[in-house]
């Protein structure tokens, strides 16, 4: 059996100019990064604004497990399948972070015969967007520390600097550091720390900005700390927004690549959904809607994280109205939720499946609360038995949702034809008969928004706050930002904030540890449980398996 990277290396990629031509992008509007990658010009984006929008399909999933769910693989395979049934499809996906690539999860360009290529480039440096975001973030940090060194005319309180440095790599040793050591000429000593690039406010801003002007304004609105006399201090107070925007000028342009079957993909932005808003850029999604009849996008991790933020943050900000939501699940993952150990998941266990399928039910019910039609996609494995598939069939009939078996990992687009036809049928049948709505209104208090998500989506019966979180909520509201949406940072492994609580937990509380303002991004980050914004590497990181030979051929990426 071939590995993902071996399959990707055998791909018959078309020149990216041909992929662009297929969806109406002239060669002159592509800024080439070699033969198979390109950025799309701002001029072209403006040109197509009058085009009619296609249908928007969101792909989400149940809570992730060690068994894997295949959300990105399903998204890619669905795009390929749409093409096979004669639909003009465009994918709008996120860029991978180097953290998971070298950590535990591996690459994020799909898998098997449903991948985005060139896979090695996408999973590594791609077109440099991550590096630009990192540089812009750290420029602001450097300017903050330089201001302290050069007389501190703003009166910055070093104890209340909120903005952290970043890098796009898992490095737990950098979570908490001290900078400015080594004497007077080396800066003012203070506590600092690092976040992973994809969790930063700069990443969120890039993904939510409508254009360069909006980007610069949002960057200027970043709250980086407070003065000694308790004044809020923003990036614009340091006159940092111009230079930071200059570093991001090209990164703001969506990237064009292709799938193994040459379906166009706009891959742009990559925030994590457990510690950020987890969706690709608004620019890429809105451009894809102008270029395709069907646009497939995804939101990170389970629907309790990525999909909720897609609806409550991204759709609200961009004025998007999704036409269908696909919830991906596997028999194996549902059995894991039912208490089966990973080593035993290949063995038929109908009882465990019936127990664990409550997790799928919760996610489907939650997605219906947003008023969007739902289709269940079962990512099928050869170990799934007829009796287990029957449990899925019975469950979906009970919930009144359509479902389809998907074999896109093994068969590419051919393995997703049933799913594609099911989705098209649901969209056509439901057109005009539903009304999309977020789960909360913006004029609610921040506490009411947090409770709405915690109770209506997670299923909690209460929310508790630390003293620090309560104070942060009061301060944010006093600054005039109480009308912003909330971005919940929570473990991806459970509907609760306890990663070990599988299935559909009951009678639990969501514990809010801290709250921070991302004024530039336009949301309030709510840290729950023991969530970290800088992950660490596992005992055996994926980096140990990655190698390159003397000819430059990379192996070990998956």
Task: Describe the model.
By secondary structure, this protein is of the alpha/beta class. It has 20 helices and 25 strands. Strands 1, 2, 3, 4, 5, 6, 14, 15, 16, 17, 18 and 19 form a 12-stranded mixed sheet that branches. A 4-stranded mixed sheet has the order 20-22-23-21. Helix 9 crosses helix 10. The longest helix is centred in the first third of the chain and has 21 residues. It is globular.
Q: Please report the distance between the alpha carbons of the first and last residues.
A: 13 Å
- Mean pLDDT across every amino acid position: 95
Share in helix: 25-40%
Class computed from helices, strands and strand pairing: alpha/beta
Shape: globular
**Largest beta-sheet details:** 12 strands, mixed
Query: How much of the sequence is in beta strands?
Result: 15-25%
Spans of at least 5 consecutive residues with low confidence: none
Alpha carbon gyration radius: 23 Å
Number of E strands: 25
Number of helices: 20
């Amino acid at each position: 059996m071939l590995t993902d990277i071996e399959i990707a290396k055998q791909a018959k990629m078309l020149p990216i100019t041909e992929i662009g031509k297929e969806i109406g992008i002239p060669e002159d509007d592509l800024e080439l990064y070699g033969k198979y990658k390109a950025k799309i010009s701002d001029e072209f984006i403006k040109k197509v604004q009058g085009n009619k929008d296609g249908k928007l399909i969101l792909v989400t999933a149940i809570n992730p497990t060690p068994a894997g769910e295949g959300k990105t693989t399903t998204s890619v395979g669905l795009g390929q399948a749409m093409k096979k049934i004669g639909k003009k499809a465009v994918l709008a996906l996120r860029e991978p972070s180097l953290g998971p690539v070298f950590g535990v999860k591996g690459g994020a360009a799909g898998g098997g015969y449903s991948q985005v290529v060139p896979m090695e480039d996408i999973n590594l440096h791609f077109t440099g967007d991550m590096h630009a975001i990192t540089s812009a973030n750290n420029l602001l940090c450097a300017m903050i520390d330089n201001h302290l060194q050069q007389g501190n005319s703003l009166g910055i309180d070093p104890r209340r600097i909120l903005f952290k440095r970043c890098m796009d790599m898992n490095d737990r040793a950098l979570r908490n550091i001290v900078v400015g050591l080594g004497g007077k000429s080396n800066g003012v000593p203070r506590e600092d720390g690092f976040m992973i690039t994809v969790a930063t406010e700069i990443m969120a801003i890039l993904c939510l900005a409508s254009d360069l002007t909006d980007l610069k304004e949002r960057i200027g609105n970043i709250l980086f700390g407070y003065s000694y006399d308790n004044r809020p201090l923003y990036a614009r107070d340091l006159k940092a927004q111009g230079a930071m925007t200059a570093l991001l000028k090209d990164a703001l342009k969506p990237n064009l690549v292709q799938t193994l079957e040459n379906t166009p993909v706009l891959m742009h932005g990559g925030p994590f959904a457990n510690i950020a808003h987890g969706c690709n850029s608004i620019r890429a999604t809105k451009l894809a809607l102008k270029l395709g009849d069907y646009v497939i996008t995804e939101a990170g991790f389970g629907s309790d994280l990525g999909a909720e933020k897609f609806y409550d943050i991204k759709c609200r900000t961009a004025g998007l109205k999704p036409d269908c939501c696909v919830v991906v699940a596997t028999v194996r993952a549902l059995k894991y939720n039912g208490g089966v150990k990973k080593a035993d998941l290949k063995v038929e266990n109908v009882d465990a499946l019936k127990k664990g399928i409550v997790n799928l039910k919760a996610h489907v019910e939650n997605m219906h609360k947003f008023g969007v039609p739902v289709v269940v996609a079962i990512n099928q494995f050869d170990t799934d038995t007829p009796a287990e598939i029957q449990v899925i069939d019975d469950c979906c009939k009970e919930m009144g949702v359509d479902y389809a078996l998907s074999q896109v990992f093994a068969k590419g687009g051919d393995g997703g034809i049933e799913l594609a036809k099911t989705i098209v049928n649901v969209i056509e049948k439901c057109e005009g008969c539903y009304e999309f709505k977020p789960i909360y209104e913006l004029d609610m208090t921040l506490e009411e928004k947090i409770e709405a998500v915690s109770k209506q989506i997670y299923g909690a019966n209460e929310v508790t706050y630390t003293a620090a979180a309560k104070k942060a909520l009061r301060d944010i509201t006093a600054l005039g930002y109480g009308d912003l949406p909330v971005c919940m940072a929570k473990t991806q492994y459970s509907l609760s904030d306890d990663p070990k609580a599988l299935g559909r937990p009951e009678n639990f509380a969501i514990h809010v540890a801290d709250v921070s303002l991302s004024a530039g991004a336009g949301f309030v980050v709510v840290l729950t449980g023991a969530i970290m914004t800088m992950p660490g590497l596992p005992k055996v990181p994926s980096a140990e398996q990655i190698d390159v030979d003397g000819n430059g051929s990379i192996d070990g990426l998956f």
